[in-house]
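Shapes recur. Our protein:

. . .
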Amino acid sequence: MPNGVSLRRWLRSSTGRTPPRFAATWSISAPRPSSCALRALPERQRQVVILRKILDFSVARTADILDMPPGSVKSDLHRGLTALRTLLGTREEANE
């Protein structure tokens, strides 16, 4: 992915399909906890989680898009999902 190009724009140009705008379907007054937790992740982990789990790209395709080795995709996905579980667990406990 070239520097200075958003992930959304790059995906649209390289795949021919536009990724969904998740925030556009959510209420601004009551954001979903998962969207807040995703924003809290480091950018690289957030990109990997979105590509692998939301857009359902393969490890190889995600590695190609982000220009990283497949092993890094797997480790960033693991770290990102672990962080999301922790963040969402903490928020759920706070809401009780």
In short: The mean pLDDT is 75.
